Structure formats: structure tokens, C-alpha cells
């Protein structure tokens, strides 16, 4: 027992020396690390540090880019769905609008033609008189037109089997800016359609030679502005037809019937076709009809 008691202090003493040695070794290692940390980094250390930093940055960017890619893909899918939906919707609407617009255009054209036809029908008994001096009519317009017709065409039974009756007469309401402006045309509504036709026939027969109290006058049918514009487009070609000694007739609304030198009647629905007819049928050229009725 005595020996054991004596050996214990020696063992404790030995253990204390080992802990001291370990502490000293740790201090030495720390000093070595501090010494090493104070040493300048080598090229390999710098490359390693840069590679580590690069890897960390790339990793973070990859994570962020992946998240952004997911968001972008979701938005792209949503946009495609919206585009497809609205594309189909707008295509349907545009098709409907085009169909409706086309139908309305046709309906409007039909209504325009019908309105123009009704307007011309309401003018069937009208005559248009140009060349009458201003204020020559006085205050009794209807009576004046009746007198004008009798003096111009004669009051015989051949000219008028029944006395001409005028229901209404007036001048065109166009202001005259200067005193030397041409007199405004007269519009007269004849009571009988047959009287109106007889007046126009006599006027055509006496074309260029009608006069009233020393003033040259002209009498025409009264048409709507649309029809008048279409018929006026033939003015030049009609003059050319007269100069070339071709006979013609104008049919409603605006078609010209020309008789060629062989007696054949051709219906020419536009001034351009009349010009072609003249180019092909003037003296010294071969006859090539462009249209026929």
C-alpha cells in the first residue's frame, strides 16, 4: 500500500508535464500560423482564392438565373395564352365586322340607288330651261312659263293638243355673285307628262334654234345631281359624234345609243367606250364595234 501511495504523486506530476507540453505545442503552432499568415501569398494561393470566389459567384448567379428562368417561362406561357385567346377573339370580331361592313355597304349602295331612282321619278314631269334673262318672269311664274311655251313652240293644236298647264315653277336657288353672271335656270313642273315629253321632243328637233323674245334658250330634262353628273361626262364625246355625223340617243340614266354608218345601233355605257367607237369608226378606218345592245 505504501508503494502505491508513493507512486501516485509521481504519476500526477507526469500528467501535468504532458499538458504543459501540449500547450506549448499549440502556442508554437499558432505562432507558426501567424507567421505563415503574415507571409505574402503565392500565385497558387491567389489562383485558388480566385477560383473559390468565382465558384461562389457562379453558384449564386446560377441559382438566381434559374429562378428568373422559371418566372420568365411562366410569364411567357401566360403571354402566349393571352395572345392565343385574344388572337382568336379578335379574328372572330374582325371577321364579323368585315361581314357586317360588306353587308352594310351593299345595303347602302342599294338604298342610294333606290333614293336616286325615287328622286328622278319625282322629277319625271319637270323641264329645265336655261337662258331666260333674270326678272323677265315677273311675279306670276306659272303663268309666265305657260306664255313662254306658247310663244316658243306656238299655240297650235299640233304643238299642244291641250294647253300646257304648269303646276309649279321656280328658278334654281343659286346666288349670282356678279351682275354679268349667267341667268339662273328655271325648273317647271308640267301637269301632264305627255306635255313634258312633247316639249322635250320639240326642243330636240329645234336644237340650237330656240329663242324667246330675241334670247336663245335651251330646254332639258330635269335629273338628279347624280344622273346629271353621269350624263354630263358625255358632253365632249357627243360633240365629236355630231362632228363625225353619227346619230345618237341618250337613254336613262346615262347610256348612249349610237347608230353607225351601217345602220347598226350600239349601246355604249361609258364615255370611254364612245371614244373607242370613234377611234375605230372615223372615216378611213375599218368598222370595229366595241359594244352592242
From TrEMBL:
<keyword id="KW-0175">Coiled coil</keyword>
<dbReference type="InterPro" id="IPR004244">
    <property type="entry name" value="Transposase_22"/>
</dbReference>
<protein>
    <recommendedName>
        <fullName>Transposase</fullName>
    </recommendedName>
</protein>
<feature type="compositionally biased region" description="Polar residues">
    <location>
        <begin position="27"/>
        <end position="40"/>
    </location>
</feature>
<feature type="coiled-coil region">
    <location>
        <begin position="94"/>
        <end position="121"/>
    </location>
</feature>
<feature type="region of interest" description="Disordered">
    <location>
        <begin position="1"/>
        <end position="42"/>
    </location>
</feature>
Amino acid at each position: 500500500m505504501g508503494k502505491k501511495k508513493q507512486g501516485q504523486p509521481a504519476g500526477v506530476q507526469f500528467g501535468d508535464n504532458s499538458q504543459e507540453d501540449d500547450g506549448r505545442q499549440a502556442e508554437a503552432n499558432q505562432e507558426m500560423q501567424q507567421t505563415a499568415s503574415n507571409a505574402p501569398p503565392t500565385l497558387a494561393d491567389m489562383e485558388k482564392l480566385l477560383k473559390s470566389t468565382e465558384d461562389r459567384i457562379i453558384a449564386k448567379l446560377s441559382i438566381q438565373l434559374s429562378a428568373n428562368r422559371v418566372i420568365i417561362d411562366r410569364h411567357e406561357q401566360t403571354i402566349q395564352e393571352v395572345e392565343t385567346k385574344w388572337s382568336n377573339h379578335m379574328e372572330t370580331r374582325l371577321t364579323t365586322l368585315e361581314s357586317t361592313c360588306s353587308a352594310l355597304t351593299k345595303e347602302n349602295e342599294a338604298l342610294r340607288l333606290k333614293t336616286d331612282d325615287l328622286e328622278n321619278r319625282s322629277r319625271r314631269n319637270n323641264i329645265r330651261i336655261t337662258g331666260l334673262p333674270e326678272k323677265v318672269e315677273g311675279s306670276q311664274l306659272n303663268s309666265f312659263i305657260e306664255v313662254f311655251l306658247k310663244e316658243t313652240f306656238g299655240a297650235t293644236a299640233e304643238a299642244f293638243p291641250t294647253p300646257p298647264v304648269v303646276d309649279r315653277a321656280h328658278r334654281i336657288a343659286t346666288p349670282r355673285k356678279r351682275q354679268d353672271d349667267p341667268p339662273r335656270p328655271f325648273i317647271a313642273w308640267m301637269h301632264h307628262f305627255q306635255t313634258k315629253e312633247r316639249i322635250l321632243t320639240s326642243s330636240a328637233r329645234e336644237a340650237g334654234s330656240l329663242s324667246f323674245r330675241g334670247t336663245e334658250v335651251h330646254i332639258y330634262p330635269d335629273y338628279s345631281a347624280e344622273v346629271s353628273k353621269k350624263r354630263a361626262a358625255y358632253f365632249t364625246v357627243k360633240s365629236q359624234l355630231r362632228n363625225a355625223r353619227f346619230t345618237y340617243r341618250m337613254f336613262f340614266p346615262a347610256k348612249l345609243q349610237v347608230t353607225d354608218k351601217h345602220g347598226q345601233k350600239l349601246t355604249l355605257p361609258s364615255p370611254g367606250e364612245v371614244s373607242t367607237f370613234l377611234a375605230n369608226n372615223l372615216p378611213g378606218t375599218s368598222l370595229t364595234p366595241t359594244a352592242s345592245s
